[in-house]
Structures are given as C-alpha cells and as structure tokens.
Amino acid sequence: MLFSTTLMKRAGVPFLLSLSLVAAAPTSKLRRVGSGIDVLLFDAPAVINNGATQASIEAFAFATGSDTDTSALEKKLKPILSPLALFGVDVDSALETALERTKLFVAVPEGNAKLTVNVKGCSGKAVLKGTDTNGLAFQDVDVGDCSGGDAGFAGTLEGVDESTSMTVFPSEDGGFGVISDIDDTTKISNVLDKLKLAKATLFDSPTPVPGMPELYANLSQSLNNPSFTYITGSPYQLVPFLRDFIHTTYSATPGAILAKNLTVSNLDSLGDFLFDKNSTFDHKLRQIERVHELWPNKKFLAIGDSGEKDPETYGEAFRTHGGDVIQCIWIRRVDGADNNDERFAAAFDGVPQDRVRVYEDSDITDVLPGIDVAGGKC
Q: Which of 65, 332, 359, 360 shows its CA 20 to 30 Å from the CA of 79?
C-alpha cells in the first residue's frame, strides 16, 4: 500500500518526512499487514551525516482486531463512570474516549513480525528485524541518501493493505537539540494526584502548560530549528494520544516521542498498569543515551519538571555525558512536589549552578524567552 511522504523545507532543518496518506491528519494509524497482523509505527528521530540518513525506528505489531477487544476494560470503566451522569456527564462519550485511548493495552502482541519500510527518494530502505515477544521492533536503520527526488515522496510498508503513518525527524549531527518531558512539562497531567492524572489521561482534552507552546516556538527560532525529542514515562500504548497533542498543540516543534515499554499481563489493576512510574528514571536515562548516540555532537537543552524525577534524571545525564552534551537544564516547579533546596542540591550534585534553572510558571512568558541559550546562558 502506497503512502505519500511530504518533504517540507524548514530553515536549518533539511527535511521532515511525513509518511501519511493524509498529511493534515496527525493521528498515528493502526493498520493491517499480511497474516492478520496490525502495526503501529512510531515517529522516528534521524541523523544526517554526509548525505546519509540513519533513522531510529520503532514499531509495535499486534493481532488483527485485538485493539478493538476492549470488553474487559469496558467492564472495569463503566461502573466507575456511571455516577458521573448525576453531574451531567455524557457517560457513553466518556467511556468511548477512555476505550480509544487505552485499547492498545489489551492488544495481543505479535512476535517475529517482519517489517520493511520503503521511502521513495531515499537510496536505501528500512528493513526491521522480527518483533520480539512483546510485539516490539527497535532498530537504527540506514536509509541512504534522501536528498534526491521531488518535493513529494511516496513509499511502501511491504505487506500493508491499508494506510499507515509515521514521521521521520532528521537533523544534522551538530547544533542544538531540545530534550523535553511531556506530563506536567508541556501538558497539564497532575501526575502527583492519581485521580486527576487518570481523568486527564483517560477523558479530558489535553491542555498545555500555559505559555509552553509559545516558548517552544521561540526556542525553535533562537536555537536555529533544533531537533525536539519528547522523552516520557508514559507507556507506548498512549503514544497515539500524546502524538496528536504534540503535533497539534506544539505544531511548531513536533518531534519523536520516546515512551516507556510497559507490558500488561492482566487487568487486575487498571491504575497500576497505566501509571506505573517505578522504572521511569532508568527509561529516561536510556533514551537520553539513545539520543546522544544518534547525535553525538549536539548540545542539548533538557526541560522537565519537579513532579517526579526529572531533576535526578537530568543531573545524572549531566554527570554521565558532561556539560558539552547537556548544556542547560530547566525544571518547572510543580505545586505540591518536593521543591526543597536539599532535593535540588542532591539531584544536581556536580552540575554547575549556572547550568540549572528551576522556574516558576510566571517565568515561562516573562523570563525564559529572553535567555540566550545559544550564547551559553541558562
């Protein structure tokens, strides 16, 4: 099945490959391949070196139709939602939204699925090794020289009989990149309140942290169109939901979302498998390592919040990779979090004070846009 690839020119960014039948639709598609397998392709960061493009590609393969078998989830959610009718809430609509966002949690993974992505205009193609027992494939793939061809590329995912979509975000190995958290950094999630977190994740329309889309657009200009990579502790099953949010609300700074691999063995505790944060620290460090290995000569501005372990994560990343890689760390001060000086001192032990900024919400519009990060300020 052919899908169109739109080549969009941006100053400082050679191209953005959008693999989608409908360029205006940001939703990650779940589509069928041969032998009863559906596939979700994740957006991919990519590096350009001497005309060659290497993309870091991920995919999730699952049994056809398993994403619609949400009866167990529905049985758990419906009695929880029913009392909301007393407050004028459309329970059926709320349930539909929750099931749509969580359906991948009950998808049955397909191991050993062979996937090949062809990109017309690139001299190579992405041939992925078989998916693992969790249905996941992850591989850095050299797709060759992508500088040829016309303004619109066409490509194929071999074996696909319906549309699929992904976006490859290439950037030169140099200049600046932005590593960003999502929950309570770019999107209001209320991570510290599990009931509010569940509501924001399952039912509400996502709301940005006020001023952050404008700040990121400003950074895109002041840092000469840096790569943006969103590293989140949310599970990959929520990536379609998060991708829609980033690609619409942060349309000036889209980027790959690197989410956590969370395998669900049963539905005994919906909250546990949706919001398990025990491994987020290790996950984010691994993803920062992945980004650094892809772009070893980039400097990064790392942006997060104090709600969970972003200070500790970015502090450890600085100590591991040094100030030539993690140039600045910005942490949003979240109300109700542990914002004690002792915590930040421990988290940023060994990090020069002028490399760290713990900011208030008022600073998002009043202070941060005026900081000359490109000139070495934080």
A: 65
pLDDT tens for residues 175-191? 999 999 999 999 999 99
Q: Where are the alpha helices (DSSP H) in 137-205?
A: 194-202
Asked if 321 and 350 count as a contact pair (C-beta separation under 8 A), the reply is: no
Give CA–CA dist 117/156, Å, rounded: 6
Q: Which residue bears the tokens 């450890």? A: 316
Which runs of consecutive H residues, i.e. helices, occur in 108-204? 194-202
Contacts of 378 (CB under 8 A, 6+ apart): 327, 328, 329, 330, 354, 355, 356, 357, 371
9, 15 Cβ separation under 8 angstroms: yes
- Residue 292: CB atoms within 10 Å: 19
Instruction: State the Cα angle at 333 between 330 and 337, rounded to 5°.
Output: 130
**In terms of C-beta density within 10 A (0-12 exposed, 13-18 middle, 19 or more buried), how is residue 369 classed?**
middle
* Residue whose tokens read 């889309």: 213
Whether the Cβ atoms of residue 106 and residue 100 lie closer than 8 Å to each other: no
Q: What amino acid occupies position 71?
A: S
Q: Give the sign of the dihedral formed by CA 337, CA 243, CA 276, CA 115.
A: negative
- Beta carbons within 8 Å of 225's beta carbon, 6+ residues apart: 10, 11, 12, 13
Q: What SS3 state is found at 310? A: helix
For residues 265 and 134, what is the distance between their CA atoms, to the nearest angstrom?
11
Provide the pLDDT for residue 160: 54
pLDDT of 318 higher than 70: yes
Find the angle CA(113)-CA(117)-CA(119) to the nearest 5 degrees.
Answer: 175
- Single pTM value for the model: 0.84
Cβ distance 146 to 121 under 8 Å? Answer: yes
Among the listed residues 302, 240, 285, the one whose alpha carbon sits nearest the alpha carbon of residue 102: 240
Burial class of residue 238 in the structure, from the number of CB atoms within 10 Å of its CB (0-12 exposed, 13-18 middle, 19+ buried): buried
Q: How far apart are CA 44 and CA 129, in angstroms?
A: 16
Q: Three-state SS for 225?
A: coil
